[in-house]
# Entry
Amino acid sequence: MESYDITEWGQRLGDFLRFLQGYVAQPWTLYQFLIIVACFGVAYLLSLKIEPALEERARQIKGNPGLLRVIIAFMRRTEWVMFLIFLAIAREAVLAMTWPSRSYMLSLALVLGFTWLAASVLTRIIRSRLLARFVAFCIFLYVAAGVLDVRDEAQLFLDGLAVNLGDFRLSALFVIRAIAVTTVLLWIAHIAGSFIESRISASSDLSPSFKVLAGKVVSIALTVLAGLIALNAIGVDLTALTVFSGAVGVGLGFGLQKVVSNFISGVIILADKSIKPGDTIELGDTFGWIRELRARFVSVITRDGREYLIPNEDLITQQVINWSFSDKFVRLDVDFGVSYDSDPHEVIRIAIEAAQTVKRVVDNKKPVCWMTAFGSSSIDFKLRFWITDPQGGLTNIRGQVLLALWDAFKAAGINIPFPHREIIMRTPVEVVQKAPPKD
# Structure
């Protein structure tokens, strides 16, 4: 890189502005500008009719999400595609009728338009729309500077915007390069990590917990490696960061204590396989099934559709009920009572048969029913049965069993008592009937 000289850069800029002023003053420049405007106007009007149908057709395509975003982005820029087609036809017509120098502006607009179309479409493989637009804009500026032959001047100007930090010179060009290189490498690391993680998840020989743990380790390792390569690529001496990284590490240790604690807790959860995706857990008042294990939290979806993000540290320090930890069978209890004129043996038989008629109650573990107490107004029983799908809900299966008991007892003539209360007055009470009012 050449050293920055404000006089040299100003002279180059002045020469470029004088060339631009002389070129704009020519009549053919106005004609080319009108041709460009006309081509874009016609393309825009036609795209109002064509673009909605093409975009709707593109949304019906199934496949990779990144590729679909690229296809939809291409369909949304129908006016640019038709504009470039019309502009290419107009340029060929101008070249056929006159000499090439009178089509310079058309050629320039064609190259820049194609560059912007390609950059804005291909960068939609990036999930973040804001980041995709930023990358597309940077690519367009870089190519446009090369086409206009002002790339060296732009580099000299950006390199001149600098401050000295001791022996280190921080310039705007260095910052732009650092951002560009770091962004590209981190994006490549993210794509590679997602691909490897998907391949690990597709393996049927690994446990769910190990799949999540291996995927997270690979993603973190690739991200750290990309960061180190980026620092080395932009010319930062990694040995000079030793003292700085130590000071930053102490500050992060205090400031991000909870974040680090949740991350370490997540690694422990994945390593000891105590919780895995698909398990049904209960933590406090939260009951649901685990949808995903993340580095900082666990996503739990409840029966009412709510998604709770529970910090990993809570799953380590608090009591957690894992309904499907080592065995998929879950036993549930239902309490009920019948009147004293009922035969307890017959009640037990009917209750067991009624529970077996419910679809979710398993057959290989037979329900059992026990008489538990002589209540104040009923003989009390406890019915126990087994299910294998607690994620399907517990309240609803209890309700189905109770309803089956109600139907069975009603068919057998067994009464389910309800409390009776007798009120005794300590002093006589005289009941007086009030005479109706006279008309």
Summary: Strands lie at 162-165, 168-171, 280-283, 286-293, 297-302, 307-311, 321-322, 330-338, 368-374, 379-387. The chain has 14 helices and ten strands. The domain at 277-322 is CATH 2.30.30.60 (SH3 type barrels.). The first helix runs from residue 6 to 24.
